[in-house]
Design goal:
188 residues, alpha/beta, 39% helix, 13% strand
């Protein structure tokens, strides 16, 4: 039987802990010390107190040195492999990383996927055809939900305020795997 169920997985904050590497870059250059747990706002500027352009520079530097970016969860390659047995996996991202850097990082971490969809901005994700979206951006999750798209938010400190908003949350990749398995069983 051909796979028909499409899972659209975000990159930054869902697969790649690029935020952690970005915060390291900021600390090295400015002395401002923050961890993922200190970030309560998706745009980072409020929590870090630096201009958006500088934060984007630090993100860009993180992707230029993608070998330093850790997985959000060490179980991701195994879980995506298991999901890929039954579903099509799209990596759908608006990352500042270049395609060759993203592909290099995915390959380095043994991430299985069928297609990389690199959009210019998050709102373009709304036009991607998928059965479920895995996101960490609270604003995009609301827009996807309003557009009638199924979305699961991977819990991060910057999106916990969205909880109890009718959107499905997963605390970690193990819980996410369980939720996706239920959706896959329901789609057959």
């Amino acid at each position: 039987m051909a796979k028909k169920f499409i899972i659209a997985v975000d990159l930054d904050g869902v697969l790649a802990n690029s935020i952690k590497q970005t915060l390291r870059n900021i600390e090295e250059e400015t002395g401002v010390k923050k961890t993922n747990e200190n970030i309560e706002h998706y745009d980072l500027t409020t929590d870090i107190g630096l201009p958006w352009d500088y934060i984007m520079y630090a993100f860009r530097k993180a992707w230029m040195e993608y070998e330093k970016i850790e997985l959000v969860d060490p179980n991701i390659p195994y879980i995506l492999n298991k999901l890929h047995e039954q579903a099509i996996i799209y990596i759908v991202t608006s990352s500042i990383g270049a395609d060759n850097e993203i592909i290099g990082w995915l390959k380095m971490n043994n991430i299985v996927y069928d297609k990389l969809v690199h959009v210019k901005n998050d709102s373009e994700k709304l036009s991607v055809e998928a059965d479920v979206f895995i996101e960490d951006n609270p604003y995009l999750a609301i827009e996807l939900d309003k557009a009638g798209k199924s979305v699961i938010v991977l819990q991060q400190p910057w999106n916990v305020k969205l909880k109890n908003n009718g959107i499905t949350f997963a605390v970690n990749w193990s819980e996410l795997f369980g939720i996706l398995n239920e959706k896959l069983v329901g789609s057959n």
